[in-house]
Write a structure and sequence with these properties.
Strand 2, helix 5 and strand 3 form a beta-alpha-beta unit. The chain has 2 domains: 162 residues, Rossmann fold (3-Layer(aba) Sandwich), CATH 3.40.50; 121 residues, Zinc Finger, Delta Prime, domain 3 (Up-down Bundle). The two termini are 49 Å apart. The protein is α/β, with parallel strands linked by helices. The chain contains 16 helices and 5 strands. Helices cover 58% and strands 8% of the residues. InterPro entries: DNA_pol_HolB (IPR004622), DNA_Rep/Repair_Clamp_Loader (IPR050238), P-loop_NTPase (IPR027417).
Length: 328
Amino acid sequence: MNTWTDMQEIQPLVSQMLINSLKKDRISHAYLFQGAKGTGKREISKHFAKSIFCPNREEAAPCLECRECRRIDSGNHPDVHWVEPDGASIKKDQILHLQKEFTYTGMESNRKIYIIDDADKMTVNASNRLLKFLEEPSKQTTAMLLTENGQSMLDTIRSRCQLMAFQPLNPVHVERKLIAEGLSESSARLFANMTNNLTEALEMSEDDWFANARKLVIQLIEVLQNNPSEALLFINHKWMPHFKERVQLQQGLDLLIFWFKDLINFHLDRQEALVFIQEKERMEQAAMKWSRQKAVKQLSFLLEAKRKINQNVHPTLVMEQLTLHLQG
């Protein structure tokens, strides 16, 4: 993401609100950027900082080429301060150091910006210290607090910030980005549906565990289709040894859910909605075994299995019961 136009594609509402504040010269003293990981909080906060400092800005758009823009990009701008967790938390001393920095005159202007990443990880003492900082804002100071979990922050801090709610990314946008990163269309489609977090999607694409999980799902479908009596054996000897953790098992169930959703879409001739786009031949064969109504029924069994896993029912018991239903 290099321009406001790029950012409007992934976060249209937040981007437009920030653009309007720049155009009207009504920049708030503090913003709370709240949204899931990978929704563009860091990129947009950095771009907003460029827009504030860029001497060549045209309306809201920074030039991206001047000394100010380049230094913000590299993290070396003397009047843009980043605060990140030191270990598991952001500590009081880090906020005290930030306050000390802000007592000095700006290196090149009176304008200063500070960006606190993972702001929900501030300790109680750090939060109270930041609160005092926010209570006496300077007109030349802009704070951006970035968080995935704004509800865990002090209400008094939240009330002093303008809330910017970052929405989950559109799977189509994530898919395009993944293809641009070099993934095949089939892999990009699958990972974009597994997560709307671009970073997580790229990590999955490089994960051997996930590649094997994908293979096991296809193998289980083939066993259910061609040798259903061997399905329980497959679950106990191949499936469970791979999906050892509950979060892994949830991912395996998600993949199976995508398969049966694909089967329903295949019956409805909605080819554009398919996730396993490289498995059309297998899908044709599966359509002969499972009618649309049967696929809907199997989907309900899978969703029930996910609910039981969330309720800490024993994973092996859940999978064995699910397999008996899928065999039927």
